[in-house]
Amino acid sequence: MTRLAKYLKPYTAMLLTAIVLLFAQANFDLALPDYLSRIVNNGIQQGGVENAVPVAIRQSQMDRLVIFMSAEDKAGVLAAYTLVDRDSPDYNAYVVDYPALANEPVYVLKEIDRAETDRLDSIMAKPLLTVSTIEQVMADPAKASQMGGGLGFDLSKLPPGVDIFALLGQLPPAQLAQMTDAVDQQFAALGESMVAQAAIASVKAEYAALGMDTANLQSDYILRMGGWMLLLTLLSGVCTISVGYLSSKIAAGSARDIRRDVFRNVESFSSTEFDKFSTASLITRSTNDITQVQMVVVMMVRMVFYAPILGIGGVIRVLGKDTSMTWLIAVAVLMLISLIVIVFAIAMPKFKSIQKLVDRLNLVSRENLSGMMVIRAFNMQPFEEQRFDKANLDLTAISLFINRVMVVMMPLMMLIMNGLSLAIIWIGAHQVAEANMQVGDMMAFLQYAMQIVMSFLMLSMMFIILPRASVSADRIAEVLETKTSILDPEKPKPLTKSFKGNIEFRNVSFRYPGADEDVLHDISFTARPGETTAFIGPTGSGKSTVVNLFPRFYDVTEGAILLDGVDIREITQHDLREKIGYVPQRGVLFSGTIESNLRYADENATGDMLDSAIDIAQVTEFVNSKSEGMEAEISQSGANVSGGQKQRLSIARALVKKPPVFIFDDSFSALDFKTEAALRKALKDKTGGSTILVVTQRVSTIMHAEQIIVLEEGKIVGKGTHEELMENCETYKEIALSQLNMEALS
User: Fold this and answer.
1) Which of 35, 15, 32, 11 is nearest to 306 (CA)?
2) What are the two backbone dihedrals, phi and then psi, of residue 729, each rounded to the nearest 5 degrees?
C-alpha cells in the first residue's frame, strides 16, 4: 500500500479534516456512557442531586455543619455562600425558590467553578452525614447511646429539650477535634462512595426542608442530561456523515487518479512491456485491483484513525470509573489479538493467490467470448466448459476458504464480547451490593468496555481486508513502475519542412526481449517516396516484425532505421507516428459510428476527405447500403461487419490521415481479388507520392511493386522487381508458382 501512498497527497486537507472529525466523533461517543451514568446515579438514585454541596441551606443547618469543620474549612465554606434574609434585596426572588426563607435566613451558593465545587464536596460530605445521623438517632435511646460512644459521651442521658448541637458548639476546640476524628474513623469503614451517597441524601432532605420541589428537580436533571445525550448523538451523526463523505471522496479521487495513471502508462507501453502483462491481467489490475484499493482507503479513513482514538479514549475513561475490573478488558483484548493473529497467519497466503486466480478466470472468459465461433466450429464446448469450471472452482475454493475463516472468526469475537459483558455484570453486581460501585458506573463501564472491544474489532476487519488490498496495490504498482523501453530522446531532432519520407534500414538485426537469438539478421534496404516496397516470404520469416520496427513498436537490437537520413530513435514517437498511416494485420474498429472510426485519424477531416477515403478503400457501396450512411453504428471490435469490410474501413481510416508513409501489414488478405485490384489501383492513383510498405502473402498484390523484398528465416534472400525475382530468387519463384500459373505470372 505504501507504494501508492503518493496518490493520497492531493487529499491531505480532506484527510486531516476527516481525522479531526473522527476525533470529535470519538469524544462524543465516549461522552454518552458518562451521561448515562449520571442519569442513573444522580438522576434516578440521588433524585437529581449531583454532589454534597447544596445550592441553598438553612442558616440553622449551616450552623450545625460548621461545628464539625476546622476553622479553615469553615471559612472556605461560608465564603462560598451568601446569607439571604428579609432585608436582602433579592429576598422576594429567593423566597419563591426557597419558601423556608420566610421563616429563617438561608445560605445561597455563589457561582463557583468545578474545582471549587469538588473541594467543597469533600469538606461538606462528612459534616452533612454527621448532622443527619445525630438528628436520626436522637429519637432512639439505644442508637443515641451507641452514637455517644463515638462522640465521647452518652447522648441518651442528655436532659429533654437540650439542643445537642448547641452543646457540641460549646465544647473546647481540642475536645471537638478529638470527637471529629472519632467520627471520621467510623465513616472510614463505610467507604467514600457510601459516605458520598449518604451525604447527598442529606442534601435532598435539606431541599425538602427548604420547600423546594424535589420531584421537579429530579425530572429537570434527567431531561437536561438526556438533552445533552441527544445533542451529542446528533453531533456524532453529523461527524459520521461528514467523514463518510470525505472518505468516499478521498477513495474515489485517489482511485480515479490511479486508474488514470495506469491507463496512461499502459498507453505508453511498447510491445516489449505488453509481453510482460497479459491483456486479462491488465484489465483486472485496472478494475478489480483498483476497486480493492479504493474500498480499503474508505475503511482506513473511517476505521484506522477512529478505532485507536475510541480504544485509547475508552481505556482512559474506564480508569477514571473503576480500576478493579479493568483486567477483564485486558483479557478480552488479548484474546481478540490472538484470534486476529491466527486468522491473519492462515488467510494471508490465500490472499496473495486470489488475484492471480481472478486474472486466470478473466483470461479464460475473454478467450471463450472472443473465440466462440471457433469453439462451436470444433465442437469444443465441453472442453471449454471444463477449462472455465477449473478456473472458476479454483477461485471459488480460495474464496470459500477465506469466507469460512471469517465465519468462524465473527462468532468467536461475539462470544468474547458477550462473555466480557456477562463478567462485567456479574462482578459489577457484587461491587454494587458491597457499596463499592454505583449502578450507573457499572453501566458506563460496560459500555466503555464494548467500545474498547469494538475498536479492536474494527482494526481486525482492517487486518482481514488489508492483505488482499495490499496484494492488489503491489500489482497496480508493478504496472505503474514499469517504464517503457521505447523512450523519446532528451534532445529530439525535428523533421524538416521539406520532409520526403525516404526510409532506410541499415544493417538492422532484432531479437525479442528474453529471446536467445535474433529473429531478423542484417536487414538493409531503402524505401523511397512514390514507390511501393513489398515484403513477402514464408510464414514466420519476419515480415510483420520488419514493418513494426519502423513505428518503433520495438527498437532494433543492432543497426539503425533512418527517416530522411535521421535515426528514428532521435525523433519523438509522436512526430514519427504523425507521419505514418498504419493498417494492422487484423483490422481494428472501435464502438461508435463509421464516421467516428474514420475521424479517429483526423477529427477535423472534412466530409469530402471522408468520402474520398471510403471511395479509395472500395467501401462506398457498403456505406451507402446503410440507411444511416456514415452514422451507421459499429459494435464493439466491429463485430457487426465482415472481415473484408473491417479491413477496408481500417484502410479508409489510414487514408483520412493523408500521411507521407503508409504501412499495410497484410491488410488485403480478407479482400477478394477484384476488390483488391480496384483498391490497389485507387491507392496508386491517389497516394502516388507516399512511401508505401506492404506485407502480404499474395504475389498478385505486389507484382507491380517497385521493390519486393523476400524474407526467409529473418534474412533477405531476394530483392528487386517481380520480373527480377522470378529470374534470380528461388524462394520467390516457389511462392509465385504455388499461387499462380506461368501465364498469370508473365
Assistant:
1) 15
2) -125, 105
Average pLDDT for 84-113? 89
**pLDDT number for residue 743:** 47
Residue 704 has pLDDT above 80, yes or no: yes
pLDDT of 495 reads 81
CATH architecture of 580-658: 3-Layer(aba) Sandwich (3.40)
DSSP 3-state assignment of 654?
Answer: helix
Query: How large is the C-alpha radius of gyration of the chain?
Result: 46
The strands making up 558-563's β-sheet, listed across from edge to edge, are 520-527, 503-510, 558-563, 566-567
For residue 81, give the C-alpha cell. 455562600
**DSSP string for residues in 519-538:** SEEEEEEEE-TT-EEEEE-S
Which residues pair with residue 633 across a beta bridge? Answer: 593
For 69, the grid coordinates are 469543620
The contacts of residue 66 (CB under 8 Å, 6+ apart) are 74, 77, 78, 127
Quick check: 649 and 490 in contact, CB under 8 A? no
Q: What share of the chain is helix, strand, coil (3-state, %, to 5)?
A: 65, 10, 25
- DSSP tally for the chain: helices H, then strands E: 29, 15
> DSSP label at 599?
T
SS3 492: coil
Structural domain boundaries of the chain?
51-213, 268-481, 580-658
Query: pLDDT tens, 516-535?
Result: 888 999 999 999 998 999 99
Nearest to 314 by CA among 690, 588, 33: 33
Q: What is the pTM of this model?
A: 0.72
Cβ contact 736:746 at 8 Å: no
CA dist., res. 423 & res. 418, Å (int): 9
CA gap 614, 612 in Å, rounded = 6
Rounded to whole angstroms, the Cα distance separating 596 from 628 reads 13
Instruction: Please identify which residue in the block is written with the cell numbers 463499592.
Output: 436
Per-residue pLDDT, averaged over 122-141, amounts to 76
Q: Which CATH number fits domain 268-481: 1.20.1560.10, 1.50.10.20, 3.40.50.1980, 3.30.750.24?
A: 1.20.1560.10
Cα–Cα distance for residue pair 550/505, rounded to 1 Å? 9
What is the residue-wise DSSP string for 66-108? HTTS-HHHHHHHHHTEEEE-TTSTTHHHHHHH-GGGGTS-EEE
Whether 98 and 104 have beta carbons less than 8 Å apart is answered as no
For residue 144, the model assigns a pLDDT of 47
C-alpha separations of 345 from 229, 341, 342, 441, 472 in Å: 42, 6, 5, 39, 18
Residue 6 is classified by DSSP as G
Region for 49 from its dihedrals, namely left if φ exceeds 0, alpha if ψ lies in -120 to 50, beta otherwise: beta
